[in-house]
Amino acid sequence: MMLIIILLLITVVGFVLSRNQSVKNIFKPEEKYYTIDDEYNAKRKERQDEIDKLLGKIGKNGLNDLTEKERKRLDELSKK
Fold first, then answer.
1. Structural Rg of the chain based on CA atoms
2. What is the pTM of this model?
3. What is the pLDDT of residues 18-33, one digit of tens each?
């Protein structure tokens, strides 16, 4: 009798969890971009964050602290 109650309880809990949207979203891969504008804005923010990081490094230690690779990257990003 106790086994039947436990199995029934497990079944009910499983049913409730399967109907819950948040549990379904765990197994569904998250979509990164929804529209072309979202993708553009995300890439623009990534570029701006990289520029901010490089400019912050310049602000702390001066332009001479940047490596040649970082200087070229800053030039590339500033042209976009």
1. 26
2. 0.54
3. 666 555 556 666 666 6
